[in-house]
Write a structure and sequence with these properties.
The structure is a homodimer.
Chain A lengths: L1 H10 L4 E2 L18 H6 L2 H8 L3 E5 L2 E4 L1 H20 L3 E2 L5 E3 H7 L10 E3 L5 E4 L4 H9 L10 E10 L14 E11 L2 H22 L4 E4 L9 E8 L5 E6 L5 E3 L17 E16 L3 H4 L2 E3 L5 E3 L1 E8 H12 L16 E4 L8 H15 L9 E3 L7 H11 L3 E4 L10 E6 L4 E6 H12 L2
Parallel strand pairs in A: 1-19, 4-8, 18-19, 18-20
Antiparallel strand pairs in A: 2-3, 5-7, 6-7, 8-9, 9-17, 10-11, 11-14, 12-13, 12-14, 14-17, 15-16, 20-21, 21-22
Helix pairs in contact in A: 3-9, 4-7
Chain lengths: ~450, ~450
């Protein structure tokens, strides 16, 4: 009977079968959950992602991203690409191996403790790029630019490296991580502030698309230099940053910017409640902090050579992936932001040998191809073809994985009209729907 | 008059304007072309790519990929993704930082001279991954697998690192390069050979899509180990590999496999002509060379634990990008494989103040949006909005950049019916076409 499903599937070469996905399960032993050290290393999201074969550790702080993890990360990358390009961001790729001299010139080489350093066979020194202000300025300095060429916004989405003292919480604090880093160049402070504000809006868009509540707070510039910065946080108990929420005006602030328990926004006293946040994005106005030592200049209207005004903008994409799961999941079941779930829809056909099986194949095929014609659902449908398992067991696993929609071909497919069992997993809704209603439901969820 | 174009453009937020692209020109001084050292470092492709702002060197062997370069590389990546996924390849990402112990276990740590090595702050040793057989096997060894789980084909598209003695020829021999590397696992030799053959076919597909003549030759396995390998070469004078072509049977062979001037395919003697090739792909049957030391095993039908049979398959994507340009270009003008040119179509509107300008705007808009409705051309159209330059000058630059199709709104747009000047750059054809004929021409070029 398992063969029947296989036949159906092979007729439609591109039906994606769960049984073929490399997803090694790896139950983290219960007793380890009580050890203090394990508690520090793990979080809800890292445990779920490791357990369910989304990531796998290679060495502390270094992970293999497995097929379901890569699917999610690539979706997140596409959203970031679209947002950055919609405001004129131009994608580039800076080298990972950065000539150490550039960081000596900026003065950061001894300032940043987390630098990975190495030498090549000719004894030239490099660092593995954790951020690329120096490289971006060096690039700009290599050619002449007119004031007409700005604003210029360059960004990349690449792996960055930090020699963390204590890598922890899976992708939330890892040695290698995927970051969207963007560098803007403008001809004066006002123009730079315009760009800063445009990018800030695009960051809000980006987080709104994910649908996760975020808190934007003024930040301390730290090793980046510059005079203005903002941080974007997701709320989570495991967060390393402390935020305070003012129960009077409801605004969040970085605890470092609070003096004498006074809310810096509404000036009320003693209304501040501490909470924890995971920093998922950071924006900085840098002025000429880097453009000056590197001579990243432009020629102004009167022919003068002037330092560019620079901002930089980061989104930690692998961290956002993990922090989203941390924020949305239960202890036992993953929940994804709908736009980045590895698959949008999981279809569960009946168990082999069941009464429903004989009529299920043609229904499955019709359903798959109708769904595959829906925008944003296309190529994003997975069939749990392990028909030796009961529907119930596969449904439990599907919910644990958090596919946003699970469609079960259960016993009501024998009715007239046929009814499908739809689980709207993020919404916590279960409903039996006829074919057209089912398609409408899914379509509206993705194309409102 | 320049403003008029701007207005048109802003009505259509997504019209892509050449003037906004970060493409710093950088003429390589003529005298340097004669220096022997420069000759060794540069090639036709590296000179053109540097000169035309497609890449820019950061340090020897390390490059910034600029916006036009990234567009081409992302197209190439998508083609590789589609081909690998069509044969069941599952995309993953292995860490760049590889625990050195894994390479000690495989015995390769002292064998490969080009390893970048580094230590973290706890004095743990890592290498920067040039290839990931060890990591893939270690990953497999961490979970149990049934014979039913195979074939398993995992691949990644990531940056790799080699501490080259003499980085040269731009992206052809660089310290950091983007590679598609794939690892297959099978339960026995026969199944592994089946997978090897399926992947080999997909490699031929991949190169056929690019449309570049390639030579597949038997290879020497080298440091990879294993008993069978094939290399894929593009012909180019600057190639580092020597191939021989038999003028009797026309087959190519690696010179290392030729004895006594006898063609190993047709056995004819003294018919061999030497030529140079750039290796752009390599496939290996590895057997249990890595699965054995790492215990990458499966449970067979009788419950026995057996070493997996492994193959690995590489495509050097940044090298293919450069080698394609090397193969197709003239000394003065880039030519791209059509599917990976940074933009498919360049539109050149009339010079500001010309007689044609008043009627050009509405034509441009109509043309842009009609082209933008053609599959595989959508979002791939660039307008050279620098209308302070003559059509002739922009046309020369467009050809130098090698956009496959250049459409000039020249003096025949005043005729009835309107005629557009189409330059089919790869085909070396220039023809004046009416609107519908023009669309048909472009559509057929991309959707045959």
């Amino acid at each position: 009977m398992y063969k029947q499903l296989k036949t159906t599937v092979s007729k439609n070469g591109n039906i994606q079968k769960l049984s073929r996905i490399f997803q090694p399960f790896n139950v983290i032993p219960m007793e380890s959950q009580t050890k203090q050290k394990e508690k520090e290393i793990h979080s809800k999201s890292s445990k779920l992602m490791l357990e369910l074969g989304i990531i796998k550790q290679s060495s502390p702080g270094c992970f293999n991203l497995l097929p379901l993890g890569i699917r999610a990360l690539e979706k997140l990358t596409r959203i970031a690409d679209e947002e950055m390009q919609s405001i004129g961001g131009q994608k580039v790729e800076f080298p990972t191996l950065i000539n150490e001299k550039l960081w000596t010139l900026s003065g950061r080489v001894n300032e940043v403790k987390e630098l990975f350093k190495l030498k090549d066979r000719h004894a030239h020194s490099y660092i593995l790029g954790p951020t690329h202000e120096e490289i971006a300025c060096e690039l700009l300095s290599q050619s002449q630019h007119s004031y007409k060429d700005f604003p210029l916004i360059l960004y990349q989405i690449t792996n960055k490296f930090r020699d963390e003292l204590k890598p922890r919480l899976g992708l939330i604090r890892s040695k290698q991580f995927c970051m969207k880093d963007m560098y803007s160049f403008d001809i004066d402070y006002e123009k730079a502030m315009e760009t800063y504000s445009i990018v800030s809006d695009s960051y809000e868009n980006f987080f709104n698309i994910l649908g996760i509540e975020f808190h934007k707070v003024k930040g301390a510039a730290g090793v980046m230099g510059g005079s203005l910065s903002h941080e974007y946080h997701f709320s989570a108990e495991i967060g390393e940053d402390t935020l305070v929420r003012c129960s009077h005006c409801n605004h969040f602030t970085n605890v470092e910017l609070v003096e004498e328990n006074i809310c810096p926004i509404c000036k009320e006293k003693n209304q501040l409640i501490k909470s924890k946040g995971i920093e998922v994005g950071h924006t900085f106005f840098l002025g000429d902090r880097y453009s000056k030592p590197f001579n990243a200049n432009f020629i102004n209207k009167t022919g003068k050579n002037i330092n560019l005004q620079m901002c930089c903008f980061g989104l930690g994409l692998t961290r956002i992936l993990a922090a989203s799961i941390e924020t949305l999941s239960t202890d036992q079941e993953i929940r994804w932001p709908k736009p980045i779930a590895p698959y949008s829809v999981l279809i569960i056909p009946p168990k082999a040998g069941s009464k429903e099986e004989p009529i299920a194949n043609s229904l499955l095929e019709r359903l798959y191809h109708s769904l595959d014609n829906i925008q944003h659902v296309k190529k994003d449908i997975l069939v749990d073809d392990r028909t030796d398992l009961t529907i119930g067991r596969r449904n439990i696993q599907g919910k644990k994985m958090g596919y946003p929609f699970i469609i079960v071909l259960g016993n009501r497919i024998k009715e007239d009209p046929v009814l499908f069992e739809l689980h709207d997993v993020n919404g916590g809704i279960q409903v039996d729907l006829a074919f057209e209603d089912l398609l409408t439901y899914i379509n509206e969820a993705y194309n409102k």
